[in-house]
């Protein structure tokens, strides 16, 4: 247990800090049970489980990551003409990369599941340094379970998708495993994007990718058709190819199966040297050797419909337990090829999600070798440090902090499910984000227990890196009323809440909630409160301050984890268990959120 430090505060705050430390000592005298409670809370495992075919057991066990592979501690642009993988060291799963020639940039989409807005957009000049641009799916309202008044769509929503430019338009396709195939459009990447339109309502399929053949004026969509709907355990997954209307808005046939295998998915169509290729992934092997390998299909005719021959073109290293696959084959302007892919959640570290890596590609006898063929078996393995594809100045870092002084919330943020839009504002008090408290919605969410999962307007972003991070936020508490709770959170498949709650007598009390297990702290005076969470690896600690200078460290801590198909997400929350009446539920004003991420040596 960490006792709060008795730092030397400014003279004007001496008596106030002495009173707070006295309150904390009283709390400890009453609460010697705290270490036991925290230990018991950590024993509750919220694992990520697949709705279709589960990943290896290692993906479903609690991860203990006190000793993290040093390769993950450096990432991105190293400032000397080289980069280190991962280039995006956070939960940027299910990426697709498209070249935007007109603006001399690459654009990436990455899945968001039950978070809104959906399908994060990023852009880059050199494939290494990326910036958030926005989101390709403005709302996820196609199923009522994603709305704020249900909040019961965890794990589903925006899964892997495909981004393409066609006829002067951007098109974004994605399949919700529980719903169907959806399409949004925009004339400009920055938007506005259209609301999602359903092209085919069907459950239990995933991963669309499209190709517009400008020579033949033909359009195609390939996808993982699954094992049937409902799935049949004795049937392999099928990769199906559909004819698509030239405007991209309609499937023209019932599709043709072109490949099948064990959990095959994530197909992408490419044309190279007058031949058709489809990149996809498949689980192969048993036990400790089981690996999700990157496959390449090559058509034996000049037809996308095949028949195809297949070859493994990338696998994990022999000294790694984490599969490397699923991504985009990219041709750079100088004619060299690259492959953007993710690291699968079947190894460690995984608490920060599925990061993105960039591999060089060489072609040999008409087949790509991704990464480097380290063991000489003709199959590539990932490289961890490499020369950058394009020489460039070190770009601005990925956006993380937010002063909330604009007209829109920054593109790094997502709401947990669809937000209650009338209950947040950037204009009610310019320079602040105001969150009006709602009463959490109570429904059966299976293993997800607690009010947090039903509390609307929780705002969060991706955790970045596996080294030390610091997230600090400043709150103005004067709008809180009896029952209002507000503060800082970490969450994925479970949660930790560090904040304050307004009592019936008007006092404000510090609290910590570890996945439904509540502990309380001292009374907090005044209206301004600073909250901080520092992480090192997968361990998070918490501190608070009245002035942003003198900090009181709490005894509370939390182990970050992967769950609900997402890595850890830091953010802010506000709700009221007592009432949903907006005239009585209260609010919190968030002045700013500063997030310093894992270092790049």
Q: What is the strand content?
A: 35-45%
How are the strands of the largest sheet arranged? 5-25-28-37-30-31-32-33
- CATH superfamily of the largest domain, called what? Glycosyl hydrolase domain, family 43
The number of helices is: 3
Rg from alpha-carbon coordinates: 25 Å
Number of strands: 38
Overall tally of structural domains: 2
**In which range does the helix fraction lie?**
under 10%
Q: What is the 3D form?
A: globular
Quick one: biggest sheet? 8 strands, antiparallel
So what's the CATH class of the largest domain? Mainly Beta
Q: What low-confidence regions span 5 or more consecutive residues with pLDDT below 50? A: 1-66
Distance between the termini: 31 Å
What is the CATH topology assignment of the largest domain? Tachylectin-2, Chain A
Give the class from helix and strand content and strand pairing.
Answer: mainly beta
Q: Residue-averaged pLDDT, rounded?
A: 89
CATH architecture of the largest domain: 5 Propeller
Keywords: Glycosidase, Hydrolase
GO biological process, one term: carbohydrate metabolic process
GO molecular function: xylan 1,4-beta-xylosidase activity
Protein name: Beta-xylosidase
Name the descriptors.
Glyco_hydro_beta-prop_sf, Jelly Rolls, seven-stranded antiparallel sheet, 2 domains, globular, mainly beta, 5% helix, 601 residues, Beta-xylosidase, 41% strand, xylan 1,4-beta-xylosidase activity, Tachylectin-2, Chain A, single chain, 3 helices, eight-stranded antiparallel sheet
